[in-house]
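Changelog-adjacent note: as of this version, every example in the card shows the full chain rather than a window. The one below runs 210 residues end to end.
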Amino acid sequence: MTMILPVLIFSLIFSSSNAAVQDFCVADLTLPEGPGGYPCKKQAMVTEKDFSFSGLATLGDTNNLIKAAVTPAFVAQFPGVNGLGISVARLDFGVGGVVPMHTHPGASEVLTVVDGIISAGFISSANAVYFKKLYKGDVMVFPQGLLHFQINSGKSTALAIVSFSSASPGLQLLDYALFGNDLPSELVEAVTFLDAAQIKKLKKVLGGTG
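Full-length structure tokens:
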């Protein structure tokens, strides 16, 4: 028995030191994404560029309907995060800018205000509302899959950095889900209690038909 224990310990150490360890799986974006992410790029083809991303240094274009811009650093833009369960994005808000009610089916989100004043909140599955006005340096978390939003509440532009618990967090905007497709207006009217004229107006603005 006294000899068996040291031999067993040595065997475990030896086997673990020779086990195949995969430090990372940089996405091969030439291949389709699967449920577990993208296939790994051949290690001989991996460079330091796969692990860095400069896009968040650029101001987003807020000259649009929502007066806001999202610059993602998800796996499609930043292959090095593939399989790591993380990603980030930049949020730029013009005066009056808003990121409308939306969900991320695949990730929780953490928002950090870099500049300006941002009012943000989410709605729980019990329809409880959690809403807060955030200032520079403040942080707020949005649990996975819950409807949430961000609004520029200040009198100047605002900037935030958001991080996610997935390399591909996914996105569904509620307004576009209701009014940006070809779902017949009478069905939208039935499930939203909005009148037909308002639905047609919103469909026209958001590109929907029917």
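Structural remarks: The longest helix spans residues 4-17.
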